[in-house]
Amino acid sequence: MENNRRPDDMKRIETPELAEAFISEQIEAIRNQVGDKKVLLALSGGVDSSVVAALLIKAVGQNLVCVHVNHGLLRKGEPEQVIEVFRNQMNANLIYVDAVDRFLDKLEGVTDPEQKRHIIGEEFIDVFAEEARKLSGVSFLAQGTIWPDILESEAGIKAHHNAGGLPEDIASRFELVEPVKLLFKDEVRVVGKALGLPDNMVYRQPFPGPGLGVRCPGAITRDRLEAVRESDAILREEFAKNGLEGKVWQYFTVVPDFKSTGVKNGKRTFDWPCIIRAINTTDVMEVTVEHLSPELIDHLVQRITTEVPGINRVLIDYTPKPPATVEYE
Ligand code: XMP
């Protein structure tokens, strides 16, 4: 399709002025495409869907219907931030779906990483399709497809179209709206900043679709998942305090499914370890580790072992890729 190509001479959006011009153009293009019809968007709170939401709110206001599915595998504070930014500050028409029990019940006892990913993906589509079926008069589906997604799907590396996974009765109802499909990630961030989105949304590190589920290796249990979520929140807070937010490409914690002996307040404990992983990369095919200062490590060990229930030991993963992948599953 001709309009699916990024022209060779397309100027990179690197300044607030270019971002403003892009925003004005897209608002007009969206209005021309959708008229007074309704548009549906799955809003995860990631950079791409958040920028699409903010653009569409400007273009069509209440005719945008955002659906935020909380699958229980999001980071601490994420669902609350989506509600605060989009419903409270931007006055968006936002449907919040608490699907935590539904996802965690389906994942109970499942140990195979690919099966876990499959269940999370399928369940997400089911929940979203159920919400879509409840709505009438929606003719468009907005997606945060970006230019690298198009390149990767053309190269057969990954399928990016959410609509591709939707059941036929839903997918056939919608025409796609993809306002950032010609942009690279750094350009999406410049546009997000110009749209007034908060920095921690615009400059957030990559987060996998299956979320904390891949950082809770083996069968996910609610208590171990909480240990992942709480330790991840402490790590993010300390990285921000130490000026590492936005400098280190990706950092997170993993709580593996084994226990070791410890001692707390003179009593024996038998708890999980928490693994810290912080890495840098340009292409994700090869990654190097970020070497943390001894002071920061000491502080993280102290906080995580005292503040996170179920953790009595902290380990640092200093393995590059290859031989290790970034995520544990
Ligand atoms: P790996 O573990 O393959 O990760 O070295 C490379 C990058 O991809 C992210 N990742 C995922 N992203 N769905 C996603 O959307 C997934 O299933 C998935 N698995 C890994 C990972 O966080 C890292 O940035």
Describe the structure.
The chain is globular and about 70 Å long. It has a 5-stranded parallel β-sheet with strand order 3-2-1-4-5, sandwiched between helices. Strands 6, 7, 8, 9 and 10 form a 5-stranded mixed β-sheet that branches. The chain is of the alpha/beta class. The longest helix is centred in the middle third of the chain and has 22 residues. The chain folds into 2 domains: 201 residues, Rossmann fold (3-Layer(aba) Sandwich); 107 residues, GMP Synthetase, Chain A, domain 3, CATH 3.30.300.10. The site of xanthosine-5'-monophosphate (XMP) has 11 residues, from loops.
Estimate the strand proportion: 15-25%
Q: How many strands appear in the DSSP assignment?
A: 10
Q: Alpha-carbon distance between the termini?
A: 36 Å
Going by CATH, the homologous superfamily of the largest domain would be: HUPs
Total domain modules: 2
Question: Ions, cofactors, ligands: which are bound?
Answer: xanthosine-5'-monophosphate
Described by strand count, sense and barrel closure, the largest sheet is:
5 strands, parallel
**Percentage of residues assigned to helices:** 40-55%
Low-confidence stretches: none
The outline comes out as: globular
